Amino acid sequence: MAIWICIPVFNRIDFTMQCLASLVKQDYNDYKIVICDHGSTDGTSERIQVEYPEVILLSADCSLWWTGAINVCIQYVLEHAGENDLLLTLNNDTELPTDYLKQLISCSEKYRNSIVTSVIHDIKTGELFDIGYRQNWLLATSMPVDFERDHIANDRDVIEITHASGRGTLFPIAVFQRIGLYDEKHLPHYAADYDFSFKAVRSGFKIYVSKKCRVFSHIEATGLTTVLSQFSMKNMLNYFSGMRSPANLKARFWYGWNNCPKIIFPVYIVIDLMRITGSYCRHFIIRN
Questions:
Q1: Structure pTM?
Q2: How far apart are CA 16 and CA 37, in angstroms?
Q3: Most buried among 106, 216, 222, 287, using CB within 10 Å?
Q4: Residue 224 pLDDT exceeds 50
């Protein structure tokens, strides 16, 4: 079975080339890379065409953001993939060990008809940064999981979680055939990946994170780097409304509305607002 690797890219050419360099060294060779370059101005497409002509390169404009770009990739895959193929979403600011795809396939075969996601390591230090989460809607937070405490019976390397990011998640093609694409209208950049995985769970697919499926990520390359660099009214506005900010209020509303039980949604949205506001204030209090 083939793995279709979907990567949206917008500039950051060095990240993209390092990611591709790690992909072509994989032990598992039955894969195809589909990249949507949505408006890069740094020569990304031209360099990919020269150095990696085997990559399926799709073009779009910069209005798409992450969700629109990943949907372009997925739509292409749905039109060309085999019935038993798999689809992997990946960010371009990641690098992979040589056994990464092989480990994903191994876990996918063990837990058939399920979604398999990755643990995230800091590429600079190699340290484990993020395992995964289980959502608690009443507390408006995601509770981090731990392999010692939360692993499934008879497998200490795997945990069942409630949602998964787009940063190294493997799906059966059937997930997209049943659900459709990511919510480009309401969640154009952040939270679309989590939102989609909740829909998948409601449609009967389980999500597992495997300790052996490791992604190394440039942790510092996030949407909050600039807005948390110094306090100003402009940065505060960007924190709550910027498209690249995970604290974007519109995105957080739709993410909750789409997935939180409606009976507790008012509690959820109030607590969530209090939490992200408090987090912003604490950041600058601690710095000072």
A1: 0.92
A2: 10
A3: 216
A4: no
